Amino acid sequence: MEKLRRWGIAGHKAETIVQHLVDTRFIDDSRYARAFVSDKYRYARWGRIKIIQALRLKRIDRDLIDEALAEEIDDETYIANLCALLRAKCRTIGMEETEPDHIARQKLSGEKVMCLGCHAAMPLTGYHKTPEFNQLHERTMCHAPIHHADACFFYERLSPYSRLIHAAKYEGRPSIGRLLAKDHARITAPTGFFDGIDLIVPVPLDRLKLIRRGYNQSHHIALGISDITDIPVGSLLRARRHPSQTSKNAAGRLDNARGTFSVGQQEDVARYSHILIVDDIITTGSTLCACAEAIHSASPQTSISILTLAATRMS
Fold it and tell me: What is the dihedral of CA 290, 296, 299, 305, to 10 degrees?
C-alpha cells in the first residue's frame, strides 16, 4: 500500500490492486517466508534464530515462519553446517579440540572468561556479605588480626571452575584473574568492603618462580580490583625461595610459609592505615597469615584485610 501511495494510487483503487495480487498469490506471506528461509539458510548461512528474528521484523506470522523452517531446513544438514562453522570459528580464535567446555563456550560466544550460564552457576561464597567475621577468619587466626576477609567462589578440585585458577596461574592467562577480580569487585564495592583501604598488596612470588612463570597471577588480581576501586597496587612484600605448598598438610604449610615473606622498607608500610592482601586461592590460610604477620610486625597500627578469588571449603 505504501508503494502504491508513492505512485499516486490510493483509496479503493489501491485496495483492489492489492486484493488482486493476493488472489493471484503475487503477495503471499507463506511463499515469501519459504523463499526467505531458503535464501538465507543456503547462501547466507544464517541460523534458525537469526532467520526468525528477521522475518518477525517483517511482520510475518510466526506459524508461517515455523512452517517455512520445517520445509526448507532439515536437521541433519543444519547440524553439519553448524559443525563446519564451529570448526572455522575455532581456528580463528585459537581454540583446541580438547579445550574445556567452560573455556570453549566463552571463546565461541565472545563472552569474557565464562559464558553467562557458567557465571550464573558459579559457587559463590557470599563472604562479602559478612566481611567482619566468616570462615576465612577462622582459618587465618594468627599473630596479625584480620579486619575484613572475602573470597569470590568455592574451589573444588574436580569443578570446572578450578580450571580458571589453573589457567590464570600456570597456563599464561593472568588476564582471567584480572577479569574475575573486576567482576567480584563490582559486586563487593557497594557493601563498603573496600572503604578505608589505601593500598592493595598482592602475595609475591620469589624471584626465580617469577622468572620461570613470567608473571605473578596475584598481581593481576590486584590490578582487577584496582580497576574498579581506584585503590593503588603496591609491592611492599618480598618473598624468599621456599618449597611448594601444594603437597603439604595444614601444619606443614604453616611452617613452610612462616618467615617466607618480609617487607621492603618498614617506613613504607607505616604510611598506610589499611592494607588489602590479595591472592588467587586460600586453602589453609598459611600464606596469607605469613604475609599479614610480616606487615603487622613492620607496622602494628596498620589494619589488614584479605581477599582471594577462590577458597576451599572448610571440612
Answer: 100
- Phi, psi torsion values for 237, nearest 5 degrees: -95, 150
Of the chain, the end-to-end C-alpha distance in Å amounts to 73
Residue 133 to residues 150, 181, 262, 293, Cα–Cα distance (Å): 10, 21, 26, 19
Model pLDDT for residues 29-56, shown as the tens digit of each residue = 888 899 999 999 888 888 888 899 899 8
> pTM for this structure?
0.64
